[in-house]
Structures are given as structure tokens and as C-alpha cells.
Design a protein that fits this description.
With 138 residues, the protein is mainly alpha-helical. Helix content is 78%, strand content 0%.
Length: 138
């Protein structure tokens, strides 16, 4: 159905918001983790508790920033091969806001947030362990 209606470009529906989402997620996670860790270390020490706390802040911030891009991306991808409800990323975002309100951009926030919290905790705690191990050998 997608091939018949849109050809090869139809299979790339949602790629623009997905690229934007990737930038948003990485900026939110890395920047927030580093800042939160810097602020937590004086109170908790440079250990597991500070790293897990900073990871939680990073995961929550990442979910807040990326969920609207996920919603827009999903809407564009679901429309591929069918009736084109949106002309592009900006039109999709503004249409969702005006027709459904701001909360529509946060549909699915809870599962995304839980996934981000788990991912950030595993990733950043592992990162800190590997970094510590490499630094102690040099």
C-alpha cells in the first residue's frame, strides 16, 4: 500500500522527527545527567546513589523532551500509504496542538518515562563503572 501510493519516499515517513528526537534525547540525557551529578555529589558523594539519582533526572528530562517528537513521528508514520492528514513535521505538531491540546503531545508518557528511567540508570551507572575502571588503570 505504501509503495503503491508514495513509492520509496513513503518508507521514510517519520524520519525527520526521528532525527530531531535523537538530538533532543541525547542533549537532554547527557546534559541533565552531568548537571544533576555535579549538584548531587556534594550531598551524596561520588557513588552509586548520586549516579542513580542523576540518571533518574536524566531519564525524566529525556522523556519530557522526547515524547512530543515520538507522538509526531508516530502520527506521520501511521499515515504513510494512506490519507495524508499532515503536510509535515511542523504542520503535524501545530495541528495536534490546536485540535487536541498540549496533552495530546504527551500520550504514552508514562511507559516512555519508565523505559527512560531504566535505560538511563543502566547506561549511566555502567558508564561510571567503566570510566572509573579505565581511569584507575592509567
Amino acid at each position: 500500500r505504501v509503495w503503491a501510493k508514495e513509492g520509496l519516499p513513503g518508507f521514510w515517513a517519520g524520519v525527520k522527527p526521528n532525527v530531531a528526537r535523537t538530538f533532543l534525547v541525547n542533549a537532554a540525557e547527557l546534559g541533565t545527567y552531568d548537571e544533576a551529578k555535579t549538584r548531587l555529589i556534594p550531598y551524596l558523594g561520588d557513588g552509586l546513589l548520586a549516579h542513580v539519582g542523576a540518571s533518574g533526572c536524566a531519564g525524566f528530562t529525556s522523556a519530557c523532551v522526547s515524547t512530543p517528537a515520538d507522538v509526531i513521528k508516530t502520527r506521520l508514520m501511521n499515515a504513510a500509504g494512506g490519507e495524508q492528514q499532515y503536510r509535515g513535521v511542523l504542520h503535524a505538531g501545530s495541528s495536534i496542538l490546536s485540535e487536541e491540546g498540549p496533552s495530546a503531545l504527551y500520550k504514552g508518557f508514562l511507559p516512555i518515562c519508565v523505559r527512560k528511567l531504566v535505560w538511563c540508570a543502566v547506561f549511566f551507572v555502567s558508564y561510571e563503572k567503566v570510566r572509573s575502571s579505565v581511569n584507575s588503570k592509567t
